[in-house]
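Hi V.,

You were right to ask for the full record rather than a summary. Here it is.
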Amino acid sequence: MEILLTSEIQKLNESVKHESEFIETLTQEINKTIVGQHYMIQRLILAVLSDGHVLLEGVPGLAKTLAIKSLASAVDVKFNRVQFTPDLLPSDLLGTLIFNHRDNVYTVKHGPIFSNFILADEINRASAKVQSALLQAMQERQVTIGETTYNLEDPFLVLATQNPIEQEGTYPLPEAQLDRFMMKLIITYPSQEDEMMVMSQNISNEKTVIKKVISPEQIIHARKVIRDVYLDKKIKQFILDIVFATRFPEKYKLSKLTNLLLYGSSPRGSINLALAAKSLAFMKHRGYVLPEDVLEVCHDVLRHRIGLTYEAEAENITTDEIIGEVLKVVAVP
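Predicted structure:
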């Protein structure tokens, strides 16, 4: 579907407006417990709609656990939190075979990965073996215990967190695993007004209960509708130009970045950028993608897919600054 007639776009627009009505209801329900973190909530919903995983970076206490738990309650799906530690084993995450002496058979004990929404807390504290076990679940939506492979329930979302301050006893995530995350979000402190509300909420006797407002089936159906959101060929080219500028900066008159970039975004970057833009358009009740949608999610999708040289790190240059330079020169359609 390269080019649509105006009448077809209008029809698609009406369909998306109808199908996306639940977005405000879902957001309002989560906001009953989460104050101020509008960016994080929007991106979590976007990830669920896009069938992608999220890597969150932020100091402790910014409601990361509460946000994913509230989202799970509002969608009425199963939620599990796993604290990643250096002594965590793959079997602690996936499950294991237990020998039943009475019946003389092995039985399977499922691990916490058998859930819909998983919070992998401080993911970079676990060993490479645990990382690879999680990687199979994230990419293939299935796990292997013994000789049997089990499919994971849909929807399935991994929200992994990293603490940007404490790096002692951590294992850096391999580039291949980072690439499996659709987005990397940088979470900052709330404003003083928002924190006043958080404090008041937590010292009162009132306990907020999140109600189920949508079903998992609605999420799965919404994903199909999002695939039909119109993405014009010019915007596809815009996405490719952004991604290719991170690989070959000299071709886009960005020679100053050549010595700063170790590698550029993988093809997953362009795929996820297109899909995230479609999901954002859906959340805004539009049946077509605008360049502004691409620009809004660009940093979140690409910041963990770009490698920096030692020279860039020595100058304290960040991938967000690199993306900013790219967006200055790539022509917006």
